[in-house]
Design a protein that fits this description.
three-stranded antiparallel β-sheet; 0% helix; binds FE2/S2 (inorganic) cluster; iron-sulfur; metal-binding; 2 iron, 2 sulfur cluster binding
Length: 90
């Protein structure tokens, strides 16, 4: 996805009826959060986990709850569900 003229990897978190999406870049040092292909959540599946230094983020808001970037947020991407599919703006 292109955001502000830059190509960014984006991931989607779906929890029940809720869906959120974020740029795959940690606000700490800009590393990708993805631990393994398509795995972004911790074992309890309640927080997004950064693969590099273990920061933990609220999957509803992207706010870092714990770690070196506590209080900073992931870049949110607006998404919606239309006809059962996750849709993002172009
Ligand atoms: S790069 Fe994510 S916590 Fe350091």
């Amino acid at each position: 996805m292109t955001i502000n003229g830059q190509v960014e990897a984006v991931f989607v978190v779906r929890q029940g009826p809720s869906v959120t999406a974020f740029v795959d870049r940690c606000p700490h040092v800009g590393a990708p959060l993805e631990m393994e292909p398509d795995h972004f959540l911790d074992l309890s599946k309640t927080e997004i986990l950064c693969s590099l230094h273990g920061a933990r983020f609220d999957p509803a808001t992207g706010l870092c709850r714990l770690g070196p970037c506590k209080g900073r947020s992931l870049v949110a991407v607006p998404v919606s569900i239309e006809d059962g599919m996750v849709v993002a703006p172009e």
